[in-house]
User: Fold these one by one.
Assistant:
Number 1:
Amino acid sequence: MAKINLTVNGKKTTGDVEARVLLANFLRDELKLTGTHVGCDTSQCGACTVHVDGRAIKSCTMLAVQADGADVVTIEGLAKNGKLHPAQAAFTECHALQCGFCTPGIS
């Protein structure tokens, strides 16, 4: 097990993870941030996309231990002070959602 320290959606967090745990699984299973999805198992769909240190990353291709010390923003962290992120607001205003499964990767 490895101990990791990271900031997720502005909140410092730590966790003990096995070296093979994907960032997507750590976010969903350990932190209960279920907006991040593993959709295709081939890193093609983008449903697992999160921001790591300001860069869009497919969290199904990154190990949680690789995020040690990083600043991670998930779909849950885009809204600020109760106000939707402009991309989220545009989706709502334009009725752009279908099932919403891949929305994290699009926003």
Number 2:
Amino acid sequence: MSVVSDPAPAILRTEHLGRTVRDKILVQDANFELRRGEVLAITGPSGSGKTSLLRLLNRLDEPTSGTVFVEGADYSTIEPRELRRQVGMVTQRPYLFPGTVADNLRFGPAQRGDTLGPEAIDELLAQVGLKDYAGRDVANLSGGEAQRVSVARTLANSPLVLLLDEPTSALDEAAKLEVESAIQKVMRQQGLTCVVVTHDVAQAARLAERALVLESGRIVRAGPVEEVLRA
């Protein structure tokens, strides 16, 4: 008799996760899990709580109910800086430090005593389509280039989970396609585990395998991306 092995344990799992601020419910009773290599899209109308939910996943905001488990550990037991390395976020607008592209990529590893060498920097930049950009001053980058540097800088920390908050919504159409293409390439090459917030239903379908839809801070639909978005 063949034995069916259990599915891989969740790399990230939320349990009754919620946040209320001054009687306003931002996120309510969110329960979902993410397995290694999965890409989950969070969609919903403006003001539905998408970014609020994403920020709870690495404690940029503190939950007022429930918790998140990262590789089975309650994330309240993980030091915040280490948590944000493990669950890295790329924000809607890139916030880069003054200096060169390489300076930005070296920053995260240096905080934990690691040195990111020139070859590693070149490899990260090649992955996001910015070969030979290491020595460029970030002040001279376009919006799309800066966002791709932001992705590479987050990847330099070797995160378990990558959070993407509307990563292309602040860009023009050409830059949007460049950034989305770079994200897709990195996802495929590295088998990344990702959560991407997007108001763009077509983008969610291109990037993710599963999706959940928020309304008024509550998950109202969840499942395979085609089924959820078609509904």
